[in-house]
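Need tokens for this chain, all 211 residues.
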Amino acid sequence: MSRVIRATAESINVLEQQTARLELRLLEEEAQVGDLQAKLDEARQEVVRAMAKLQTLASKAEAASAIAEAEIAIQTLQSAAGQPGTPEAAQAEQLLRMSTKAFDEQNYGGALYLANQAKNAAGAGQTRVTSSGRGTLRSGEVLFALPLRLQTLVRANVRDGPGTNFKLLYTLEGGAPVLGYSYSDVWVRVSDESGRTGWVFSTFVGRRQAR
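Here are the structure tokens for all 211 residues:
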């Protein structure tokens, strides 16, 4: 009977961990959708402004310089993140390809605009990576597409790494607001309102309640 109880308890624990990971991914997707909508609105405004300035043409040299700067910005982002597959890097690379195509078609105004968009995307990614408290990802660590607005569900220990064997840094009371930046297995890397960073067990955090 005791074996059955232990097996049942282990199954429940595994399900709870899987549920916590799914909840984090859902929060990530919701945050990404909101950000994409904001970027879409910004792009529409930019198109309107561009249409009003159709007579203003960028020079070939300006467009070529912007493309080179975009390439450097993307390389810097990939170096800072420690991996090539960040969402901002993928977006910036796509914009850069579009910019290069426009340049080849001698649409230097379009090439300049798209290259600047690529630089902005790469810059946003670098800001997100550096503001998350680490410049290089741990092995197995996966960045969220956007920082997640979370809060602690219970009194939670925050550790120096993703595991109970890492040093205890500080403790957060239940209901403390935090930002989640990445995850590794069942651990989430967070920062609190004072800027302290660390890792917390995923079942100890959840969606931040609206105030």
